[in-house]
Write a structure and sequence with these properties.
The structure is a homotetramer. By secondary structure, chain A is α/β, with parallel strands linked by helices. Chain A is 23% helix and 30% strand. The first copy, chain A, has a domain of 152 residues: Rossmann fold (3-Layer(aba) Sandwich). Chain A has a 9-stranded mixed β-sheet. In chain A, helix 5 packs across helix 6. Chains A, B, C, D: This is Trehalose utilization protein ThuA.
C-alpha cells in the first residue's frame, strides 16, 4: 500500500510555536507515527514543484493524506483536478482537520465545506465512537480524549455522510461530526477532524491509529472501471409502433 | 408554493418531432400537467435574459424544476452560482432526465454526474417503487410503466443518495436509480430520470404526480439559517497549562 | 390528521414530584401543547383496556406518539404486534425519550435499543440541528437548550438512522444522536430523545414544535400497498435448455 | 479468519435434482469454492445437534455464512438468539438468497424481510454493480450475468440498507436490491441474493468472489466493547436550583 502524505508545510516553517510541536512538519510526524503500520509512505508539500503531486506520484499513490490550512488558494486548480480524477478512479483520500476548507474536499463534496463554527480556545475534545462496527474504529476505545484542541462546531455544511464514525464533544458546548466517510466514483474518502497545528495531536497514538485505519479502509477497490456513454442493448428490444 | 419550471427550450423549437410532442415546450407541458396541484407556477428558459433566472425570480422561487439536454454549456456560470446559492439557502430543486448533465447538478453533487450508460431505442421502462414510505411515492402504484423511453443504465456516477425512491428496469437489460434524493445545506434535491424530449412522458399522469410530490417534498424548511465562522464558547472553558 | 398520544401514565400517578410537573400526565401536556397544530388528538394509556390501543383506535390513527419508561414489560405482546403491523402499513410513530427501551421500538429496529449510557444529574442539554434542510427542523433555531435533563450518551445501540436531525451535547461530557428517523415498510419513525418525567421538557415550545414537525413528517404516504409472494412475469421469459 | 458456513442441508438430501447440482450440499460447494481465499472454513447444518452452532463454535467464528430456505421454523429460537448476540458482539454475517426469510435476518433487521416478489421461471439475472468503490465489488466486472435463477422482485421489505452494492435486472421485468449491507451493534451483515438450490450459482466464480469479499468485509472490528447503563459524568456538572 503506497501512501502519500501531503502537507501545506508553511506554519511549521514560519511559526516557531508550531515548529516546536512539529519540527519536521506535520507530514513527517504522521509518517513517523505510522512507521509500524506497514505502509510505503512518501510525502509531498505545497511548495514543491507541482506541489509534489506529479502525474507519476499520484499514479502510484493508493491513498493520499491531505493536511492544509491557510493556503488552500495557493493549490493550483490543475493539481486539484488531477487529484480529483484519481479519487474518482479509486485512490483513497484522507482529509485532515482544516483541510475541510481545501479545494479538493469542496469539489468532491459539492457543498461549501469550509462552513462550520470554530475557535481556538484550548478546549478539551472527546471523540465518541458512534459506529463501533466500522473498521476505522479498529483498536479504539469508546472515545478518544484530547486535552486541548481547536474547536469545530455544527452546523458543518457537508452532505449527509455515507457513515459517521466519530462525533466530538467540546468543552465550550458544541458537537461536531468528526469522523465521516464518503465515496465518489471508485474512490473512498475519510474526513477526520482533529489536528490543529499548535497541538501535539498527531503524536497521539489513538489519533495515529485512526489515520492508519482510515488509510486501510480507503484502499482502492479493484472492481472493473465503469463504462459510460452510448451503449448497445444487452437484450433484444421489441420494435415499437409510435403513434 | 412558488414553482419555477426552467427548460432549455431549444429542441421543441428546432425539431419538428419534438414540437409535435411538446408544442408549447416541455416547461408548459409540465406546468399544464400540474394545473390542479395548487402551485403558483412560472416558467423560464435558456434564451431569456439571465436565462429567466434573475435574482428577483429566484428569490421568490420555493422550488425550481430543471430540464436541460444539449446546451448545458450555454448556461452561464454566474446563473449556476446563483441557483447553487439559493439551493444552499433552502430552495428545492427538481432535476429532470438529461439535466443529470447540467452544471448545477454536477456542482451540487461533486461527481461527474454526466456519466452513465444511455441509448435511444424505444425501450419499455418500468420504474419500481423501492421506498413506499416516501412522500414522493404518494399516490403511485407499485411501479410506473412507460411504453417507450430513452434508456439510462448503471453505473450512474452519483454519490450515495440520501434516499432511493425508484429503480428502473429497462427492456434492453439495464437497471437505473431513477428517483433519488439529496440535501445540500438547507436545500432539498430530487433527481427524476424519465423525460426524453421525443416521448410524451410529461403527459403521463403518474409521472406528473411524482413531479408534484417532489415539489412538495422539496419545499423550503424554515429552520434557522446556520451561523458559520468564529464563535464564542457557550460554556465556560477551563484555563489550561500548556507544557 | 389523527394523532394518538400514548403514555405509560404511572409516574404521574405514583410520584408527587412528577405529578407536580405533569398534573394531567405527559400525554395531556403534549396534547395541550399541540392544541394549535391543527391535529385531531386522542390519548391512550397503559392501564386502559388493551392499553387504549384497540384495533379501531389504531385503524384511525395516522400518527402514534409513544412515551414509556419503567413498565415496558407490562405492554402486551399482542398490542405491540398490532402497533408493529400498523407501522408497516403506514402509520407514523414518534418514539419519545425512554421509549427507546419500548418493545415496539426494539422490534422495529432490530437492535437492543435499550442500550445506551444514562444518568440523572440535572445536566444542561443542547440539541444541535445537524440537518437544517429536514422538515423536522422547521421553525427551530440552531440549537435547543434545555437547562436540566436526564443524560443519555453514546454508544446508542441503534441501526444507522436514515437521517440524523439532532445531536445533543451534555454538560457531563457525552454526545447523543437525539433526533433520528427510520422507515419500516410504509411507516415512518422518528425518535426524539428529551423528556424525562421530572423535568418540564414537554412544556418547552421548541420541543413541542419538534414533536409537531415529527408528526407532520411521519404522516402516512398513500402509495400502493406492496404486493408480496409468488408473482407472474411481466415480460415474456425465453425458454431455457438446462444442461 | 475463521468462517463457518451454515446450511439447512435438506434439499440436497431429499431432492435428486438438487443433489445433482450440489452433491455434497451447498455448504461444501461454497467451502470448496473458497478454498483459495485463505480462510479457515468449517461447516454446520440444521440437523446437527444445536444445528452445529454450539457456544464454542460461535465463539470461534469470525464470519458466519447462512443458507436456509424451507425449514426456517425448525431453527430453534435459542440458537437464533445465540447468533444474534454474536453478531451484536462483532461476528460478521453473510445472508444468502432465501435466508432473507430466516429468523436471524428478520430479528436483526426489524422488518418482515420474508416479503418480496418471487417465482421460479429459469430467468436470466444480471447483477449490476451500483457501488464500484465498495470492497465487496473487488475483482468484479460491471455486472454478473447468471443464465438462469429464481426471480426475486421489489418491493423487498427491508430497512434502507447502509450501502447498496448490487441491483439485479430480471428477464421477467423486475429489479431487486441484491447486495446490501447493514451493521447491528459491532457486527456487519451482508445480504446477497443469488443461490436457488436448483441452479449451479455457487459454482460461479464471480459469485464465489463476492461471497469471499463479503466475508473479508464483514470481519470483526476490534474496537472497544461499548459500555451501557448508568454512568458517572466525565465532566463536572454545575449544581442547579430547581424552581
Amino acid at each position: 500500500m503506497k501512501v502519500t502524505i501531503w502537507n501545506e508545510y508553511r506554519h511549521e516553517v514560519e511559526n516557531a510555536k508550531v515548529a516546536q510541536v512539529y519540527p519536521n512538519g506535520i507530514h513527517h510526524a504522521i509518517k513517523d507515527g505510522l512507521a509500524d503500520a506497514g505502509f510505503d509512505i512518501a510525502t509531498a508539500t505545497l511548495d514543491e514543484p507541482e506541489h509534489g503531486l506529479t502525474e507519476e506520484v499520484l499514479a502510484q499513490t493508493d491513498v493520499l493524506v491531505w493536511w492544509g490550512h491557510k493556503h488552500h488558494k495557493d493549490v493550483q486548480d490543475e493539481i486539484v483536478n488531477r487529484v480529483y480524477q484519481r479519487v474518482l478512479d479509486g485512490m483513497g483520500l484522507i482529509v485532515l482537520h482544516s483541510a475541510h476548507c481545501s479545494k479538493i474536499f469542496n469539489k468532491l463534496l459539492g457543498t461549501p465545506t469550509c462552513q462550520l463554527l470554530w475557535r481556538e480556545a484550548d478546549e478539551k475534545e472527546r471523540l465518541w465512537v458512534i459506529d463501533p462496527a466500522h473498521p476505522i474504529a479498529e483498536g479504539i476505545d469508546r472515545y478518544i480524549e484530547l486535552p486541548m484542541e481547536e474547536t469545530y462546531g455544527e452546523h458543518f455544511n457537508i452532505p449527509a455522510p455515507d457513515q459517521i464514525v466519530f462525533v466530538s464533544w467540546f468543552e465550550g458546548g458544541e458537537v461536531f461530526r468528526s469522523g465521516v466517510t464518503y465515496h465518489r466514483g471508485r474512490g473512498k474518502i475519510f474526513y477526520f477532524r482533529p489536528g490543529h497545528e499548535t497541538y501535539p495531536t498527531y503524536h497521539n497514538k489513538q489519533i495515529l491509529q485512526v489515520i492508519a485505519n482510515g488509510i486501510r479502509w480507503s484502499a482502492p477497490t479493484r472492481s472493473a472501471k465503469p463504462v459510460y456513454g452510448n451503449a448497445k442493448a444487452l437484450e433484444e428490444v421489441k420494435p415499437k409502433v409510435k403513434s
